[in-house]
User: What shape does this take?
Amino acid sequence: MKVVIAIDSFKGSMSSMEAGNAAKAGVERACTADIVVKPLADGGEGTTEALVEGLGGEYVTLKVTGPLGEKVCAKYGILPDKKTAVLEMAEAAGIILVKHGELNPRAATTYGVGEMILDAVKRGCREFIIGIGGSATSEGGTGMLQALGYKFLNVEGVSIASGLQELDKIVSVDISNVPEELKNCHFHIACDVKNPLCGENGAVYVYGPQKGVKEEEKQMFDEKMKHFADKTQEFTGRDYRMAEGAGAAGGLGFAFLSYLPNVQLKTGIDIVLDAIRLEDEVKDADIVITGEGRLDSQTAMGKVPVGVARLAKKYNAKVVAFAGGVTKDAGVCNGAGIDAFFPIVRGVTTLDEAMDPKNAKENMELAAEQVFRMLNKGFF
Assistant: This one.
């Protein structure tokens, strides 16, 4: 029997690999099986950690420009092939880096994201996996592009200021300082939103308020964004303003599509599944184990465990899921490819006790052991 384990992290309790290895230990106590454990994430927070630790990569830490121009310590990963970098935009331009009262959409910048990319390019990376959720910015990705050598010039030939405030001042684009190495890079952008860049469904109107955009500023800022899109079309000959995902991360999706080569915007789970080559292992698997901290009706709407289940069902593997907690409406997950799911908590307990890493790992191991004792007896 071959068992493939790919479990999302239980936030605050277990990393993806810790959860997977705990399940593996339980299966081994119940039966003899060929067991493969793979890291798992959704392309957002924790993706770098999951892929670096799960695939045996290494971390790089550097000082970069934060969303409001301050220096912040950012971390990204390089996978064992030494060619693939895994980045989370939020490390350099995330809203978590800004106090709520200090949000400033006029000036907030993605410059540090470009610094991270450039650092990885200099280290020899040519493949990029980048999660772009949770930004503090609404500047169309111009900051990132400026860090990569692009110059957005006003009528006087001077570079525009950081942030959204001067997007409507752009008259030309200078690429003389853009590194040649970028032409050989491939960017896999984890993007789970489909909003366009401009308009009432765009970056400013939909996501601007959470980044400090006031109601009376929406139209003005959206006009600035439209101007940037117009000048981008003039310069590149392409118009991605209405592309799905162009409005992600305050327009960072638009910047990737418009100015960088070899770009794919895909759902985070699809990018991660490709990166860990899960399909190669699932092809001949008998049982696939997945899970997450909380299993509910939202899980069935396309979250990580369902992505794994969809792939497993392609090859007729049975799917078992484990979760820290299971809600009453979680039954819809059975219709989304998860054959059976089980909570791992044993008995009445406090939330703190359940989330204690030692308890969580032990509970996962014991739950997996009992399920596989049943499966090993042929009760399925």
